[in-house]
Amino acid sequence: MCADISKKIIEKWRDEQIRLSLKIRHLPLKIKSGLIAGIDVSYKDTYIYCSIVVLSFPKLEVVNIYNKKGEVEYPYIPGFLSFREMPVVLRTFNRVKEDIFLIFCDGQGIAHPRGFGLASHIGTVLRIPSIGCAKSRLVGEYRPVAKKKGNFSELIYKNKVVGAVLITKDNTNPVFVSAGNYIDLESAIRYTLDCSVYRIPEPTRLAHKYVTSFRESR
DNA sequence: GCGACAG
DNA sequence: ATCTTGTCGC
Predict the structure, then answer these.
(1) A79 is near strand B: CB distance < 7 Å
(2) What is the pLDDT of residues A30-60, one digit of tens each?
(3) d(CA A92, CA A23)
(4) Deepest in the core among A106, A120, A137, A167, taking most CB within 10 A?
(5) How far is the CA of A216 from the C1' of C3 (A)?
(6) Nucleotide C1 C1' to residue A27 CA (A)
C-alpha cells in the first residue's frame, strides 16, 4: 500500500509546507450569512472516504452532502496529515457546486510544526477561508480552561499565539482551534462558537457522521 | 537517547 | 483513524 515513504518525499513535503505557509493571510471574516462546509475523512482497509457537508449559516441546516471514495496513498505521519487526506478531499470538493465562504476541517490550521496543517492546506489550495478544529493537540502549550462555553486559553508555540483551546459546550473538553487561511484567530473562534451545539462544531460533526455511514455502506 | 505526535 | 460494553454524570 504505502510502506516506507522515502525521506526524499518527506523533504519535498516539508519544503512545500514552508513555501505555502508564506501565502497564509490572517484577515477578519465578517460574513453574516451564506453557506459553509464541513469536511471529514474516514478509513477502512486500503480505502479512504471523504464527506463534505454544506450548511446554511447561521441556521446550520444541511443544504447538501458530497461523498467520495478513494485509495489510501500514504501512511499517517504526524505533521504531514494533509498529504494523506488532500487527494480525496480535493476530488470530493470538485463536485461541490455551491459557493462556500468558510470551511471547517478536522485537524490543525497553523497550529502546526511549520504553520501549515490540514486546514491551512485546504484553505490555501481552494482559496477559501478555513478553520482547523482538532480534538487534540499537535503542538503548543496552554493553560487549563474552565469548562464553560466560550472560555478559551491561548495555544502558544515558539512564543507565538497559534490557536485557542476553546470550550464549545459546558462541561466538555476543549477543542483546538486555529486559523487555516484567509481568516484570523478571533474570527475563527467566533464562527466556531456560532456553529457549536455539541462539543464538535456542526459542520465537522455532521461530516463525521455522514462519512462514517458512507464508509459502512460501501 | 527519550518522549511527543492532528487523523 | 479503527476495534469495542458498560458506565458515570449532566
Answers:
(1) yes
(2) 999 999 999 999 999 999 999 999 999 999 9
(3) 24
(4) A120
(5) 14
(6) 32
